Amino acid sequence: MSNSNRSIDSQHQTGGSPSYQTSAWQPGTGRSPPDLTSVSSGYLSNPDHPSPSYSQSQNRHGSNAISPHSQPFHAPGESTTFPLKDPQEACLLRYFVEELSHWFDLCDERRHFQLVVPIRARQHPFLLHAIFALAARHLTRLPKYRTARGILYQGQLLPKLTPHDAVEYTLKCIPALRDFHAIQDDDRLECILATAVILRQLEEIDDEEEEARSDGQVDENEGPRSKEQVNFLAIIDAVLRSPPSQTLFGRRSLIQAAYWMAVRQELYHSFTKRHPPKMILDPEYGRGASRANKIVLHTAQVAKWRWADGSEQEWLRLQKQGEVLEEEALQEYQPYFVRPADRSNGEIFPTIWYSSALEVTSMQLCIIAKMVLMAENPFLGGHSTSRARWREIENEVRQMILDLCGISLCHPACPPALVHAAFGMELYGDFFTDHYERRALRGVVEKFRDARAWPVKKLSNMFQ
């Protein structure tokens, strides 16, 4: 076994990785604020945020108890009957809640997409259909759920589930999305934004597949794209720019959660396609944001500088802002275990343990922003910078990428961490010349592919 493989297998599967008996995304695990239950319950029971799915029925002893055998829930107006009658749709909803919602809630301690969005979806079919669309698309991509008889999830055989179902569910959302400008109801407007954010995740898969098809990577199990293309980013941006949304932003937490997820989606598109974020990055939205979301906004601003602005003045501002955010983040998000890589033992990546996905995401984005500002420093151009200084910068950038990979491998219950590691590898992977380091990085790319079922030929070829 090569040193790089030994590094990945032994360090991060047996010795260097904390053991997660259950998913860190399930209630009661991971890091949650002490008042999470009360905050979430208050949000759902607030008159401004009705939650009829939590209406209680009187049991035979007269107590207010929720019973699985209570009368089915019917939302007023547009109605969806709960409990769901279709096992396939029930599985899709469960898959979203248990497997996908954590992607949306990475920087959200209140976990809106796990706890609030499924409840709101009972009242708004277009939101429920968006959930079904994303779940169907993702569930049908992963080989571990495929059997000769069809998709098997949680003991439920889903023989009729195909990638085409994602297209059908998406099409059911489009009428509501197109009419968003006429919406007067605050609750519905929030849900339209959440719907667009969920459906935009499909674009990541579809965009990757379009590139993969040109390379012959997509297998026969991949489904068609919707013939009726919708620019979900344009809808997200238009909803956020509308006066009703700007008024809502300060007092409705779901719209805030959807906004910050949309910014993180922009980070993905910026770093993978190397173009500036296209959506609104209003500094006002960041003033009352959590520290984690301030880091998200800072990283988006760095991406905008890298692929659009490029000015020395903005670099200086971002450099100072990043130093302040990093200092604050290090005070709150200290790792609870760090061990440098032991090269004599064949280790390539350091061992770095954090206590939550929020900490992992925040610190990885800090590293990415710092790395870009360092590698693209406009004051180091030309002949005024010595070759020794450039080597020093390259060494620091390489170490940052190794740190990103080490963090991601140490947190297998947080698959998005692999995405952030991929950002660094795509940008500055050519800084690596050492054979063992390149093989180790290729192993991380393969883990990224397996975790997301994403085509990664371009990134994989970088480390041949």
From TrEMBL:
GO molecular function (one): transcription cis-regulatory region binding
Highest taxon, organism lineage: Eukaryota
Record field: compositional bias (Polar residues): 1-26, 35-44, 52-70
Gene Ontology biological-process entries: positive regulation of transcription by RNA polymerase II
One Gene Ontology term, aspect cellular component: nucleus
Spans annotated as Disordered: 1-81
Record key words, sorted: Nucleus
Nucleus found in the keyword field: yes
UniProt-recorded name of the protein: ARCA protein
Species name: Fusarium ambrosium
